[in-house]
Amino acid sequence: MTISRQRAAPSAAAPSAERVSKADLMQLAMGDGGASGQVGMVLVLGVGHGDGAADARRLLAERIRPIPRFRQRLHRPPPGRGRPYWADIPAFDALPHITEVACPAPGDDRALLDVAAACLTAPLPAGRPLWSATFVTGLTRGRTGLVIVADHVIADGVAGLAVLGRLADPPAAGSSASGSPVPTKASGGPAGSRWRGMRTGLAELGGLRRPHLAVRTSLNRPTGPRRRIDVVPADLAAVREFAHEHGGTVNDVVLGVVAGALRDMLAARGEQLTKVTISVLVSARPATSGGELGNQIGIMPVTVPTDGELGDRVTRIAAITRQRKSRARGSSAALLIPAFLLLARTGLLRPFVNHQRFVNTFVTNLRGPDAPLSLGGRPVDAVIALPAITGNVTVTFGVLSYAGVLRVTLLSDPARAADIGRLTRAVTRELKGLTSGDT
Description:
Blueprint: E1 18-19, H1 22-30, E2 38-45, H2 53-64, E3 72-75, E4 85-88, E5 98-102, H3 110-121, E6 131-137, E7 144-151, H4 157-167, H5 194-205, E8 228-235, H6 236-245, H7 250-268, E9 275-283, E10 297-305, H8 310-324, H9 333-345, H10 349-355, E11 361-367, E12 374-375, E13 378-386, E14 395-402, E15 405-412, H11 420-431
Parallel strand pairs: 5-6, 9-11, 11-14
Antiparallel strand pairs: 1-4, 2-7, 2-13, 3-4, 6-7, 8-15, 9-10, 12-13, 14-15
C-alpha cells in the first residue's frame, strides 16, 4: 500500500504519536492499498425520525472524530528510525471522508452491494486517515445504505464492531443493546511462559506435524482488483438450535455450510471435492473500546469434510474443531507474525501469499450486537460484513450476526468466480429449513 513518507523522526512527532504493532506491520506488508488490504461493513438504515443525509453526514463526522485511528495519519520514518507510527492530524475534519451517492439502480438493493464492492476496492488516498464512509440513498422502502471501509491496518473485525458501538446512538434506558463485542480471552500475558505460548500457538495451527497442503482446486488462482459481494441471511436462533442438536457451535454450522456449498460449486466445474481446508480467523482480543484498534488475531486452519448431510457434517466438524481450539485464543499470531515479517524483509511475502497452497478459503465469524441499533434516529435494519480476499483465494466468507439474523457475505473475484451465483444458491440451500429473513 502507499504510505505517506514524512521525514521527521518519530521523536519529533506529536506526543500522540504511536508506533504500529508487529501485527499491524504484518498487515501493512500484506496489503496493496486496494482490494486485498481493505475491510469494512455495510449498514442498512431504515426510515426513522432522523434528519436528512447532510445532517447524517455531520453526525457521523462528529462521532468518528474522537476515535484516534480515524483522525490520524500513518507516517513511515526514514530507514533505521523504527516502525511506522500514527500521529494526529491537526484540526482534523472528517466530513471530506464521508460522501453521499445515489443508488445507481433505484429500488434495486442489489445495487447497494455493487456500490459497496466499488468502495472496498477503491484505493484510500495517501497522506490521509485510511478510511472512508459512503451514504447510498434511494434504496427500497426509503432506506439508506452506509458503507464504511478501512485499511486492515486500522482494525480487525472485533475492533470494527467496537467502532460500530461508538458510532451508534446511545441505547435507550433499560435497553440491553450494545455495539461492543463479547470479550474474548486474551492470548496469555507476562505471567505466561514463552514456551506455553508457542505450544498453544502450534496447537491452533495444527501442531508440529508436516505442513498440510490443501487439496488443489480452482478455488486457488491468482486474483485481480475487482470484487463482487453476495449476502445470504439466516435466522440465528435456528442456526444455534441446529448446532446444539448436532453437538457443535454456530461456527461449526457455518463451516459445514461453506464446505457443502463449495462442494456443489466445484462439482458443476467438474471437480470432486471431498474435503476443504478453511482458515478460520481467531480473535486474541480482550474487552475493547473503539479507541483500542489495530489487529489482534490468529488463524486456525481446519480441513473439514464436504460430504454427507449438513447435520452429519456439523457433528464431524465439531469433533475436529474441539481438538484444535486453544484456551489462549489467537495464540498462533505469536508464531505467524515473526515468520511473515521475515518473509516481508526478504521480499518473499507477496509471492508466498499469492501462491500459497495451505488453505482454500477464509471464514471470519463475528458476533455483533444482539439488540437493534440506531444511527441518528434511524434504525439499523442490517449489518453486513465486508471481509478481505488475500492472495490466491478467489472466494472468502464473512459471517456477522446482528439482532437475531446471521448474514453470510460471499466476497469473490468475478473474473475468477463467474459462477458465484451457483455458490450463493448452494449456501442458501444448505441453510434452507433452518433460516429465514431478508437482507
